[in-house]
Design brief:
The chain has about 260 residues and is mainly alpha-helical. It contains nine helices and five strands; from the N terminus they run αββααβββαααααα.
């Protein structure tokens, strides 16, 4: 049973089913008690492969031998420490000055050259890669797709309810639409995923023998390196650096216990 479906959410789903037909809902491990998901692992992997192929066609891989060596070594340790097979993953350093990294469903992770200007050590790169690996493990891609699908279904359901004159269903569904969908549901959910990936990632780096304290140092360095105004947190898909650092600091005692256990 999916315990994360609150009474309000269940009522909304009932309204959606009544207006649009069958809605298949499942639970995804790794989140706060699980979450609903509307795509299968196979569909998620296929979508991921399409995205990855497009990225590889549009972006050139880096020829920097040291960056590639560093990523391969760190990524291999992290995947092994989390019970995976490094041969089943693909990690690529992409050309570009962006201080960015990303994960794609299907065990694909990309890191731009610009990220290495901030993550200057193996341990700090482990904080980045551990975070991205955790996005894949927690199936955040499928969960984001499902949220977007639910928002689209909600719009269709609202139109159907209005045509049927069902004002109760209209009011209930309308609460999830418009600015509410963008700022009340989808964006905060993405921030929750980012913080979850931070938490799982710092555990992964600890298990791999990397000092979890370097994750905090990395994000402190990122905050300084960005040196630009950020949108208000409620309008961003990522938590503010200060929020992220505070959350990581709260995770350090448990992560350090894991890290010391590797010695």
């Amino acid at each position: 049973m999916c315990r994360s479906l609150t009474l309000h959410r269940r009522k909304v789903l009932v309204a959606l089913v009544g207006a649009t037909g069958t809605l298949v809902v499942g639970c995804v491990p790794g989140g706060e008690g699980g979450d609903f998901i509307l795509v299968s692992p196979q569909q998620e992997a296929e979508l991921g492969q399409q995205t990855w192929s497009k990225l590889r066609a549009e972006r050139a891989a880096s020829g920097n031998a040291e960056m590639n060596r560093m990523l391969a070594q760190v990524a291999g340790r992290l995947v092994s420490a989390t019970g995976g097979n490094p041969a089943e993953w693909e990690f690529v350093v992409f050309q570009g000055h962006e201080m960015n990294a990303f994960a794609v469903p299907g065990n694909k992770v990309g890191v731009y050259e610009g990220m290495f200007s901030v993550a200057g050590s193996d341990a700090q790169l482990a904080a980045v890669v551990g975070h991205e690996i955790s996005h894949v493990h927690a199936r955040h891609g499928a969960r984001r797709i499902s949220r977007s699908m639910a928002a689209e279904i909600g719009m269709q359901a609202l139109m159907a309810a209005m045509q049927a004159g069902d004002m109760a269903a209209t009011d209930q569904i309308a609460g999830l639409l418009g600015a509410g969908v963008q700022y009340g549901v989808i964006l905060p959910y993405s921030r929750d995923q980012e913080l979850e990936a931070d938490r799982l990632g710092v555990q992964a780096m600890a298990r791999a023998g990397y000092d979890p304290q370097e994750a905090v140092r990395f994000w402190e360095a990122m905050a300084q390196a960005e040196g630009r105004g950020a949108p208000p947190e409620f309008m961003s898909t990522h938590p503010a650096d200060s929020t992220r650092i505070q959350a990581l600091q709260a995770e350090l005692p448990a992560a350090m216990a894991l890290y010391r256990g590797q010695g």
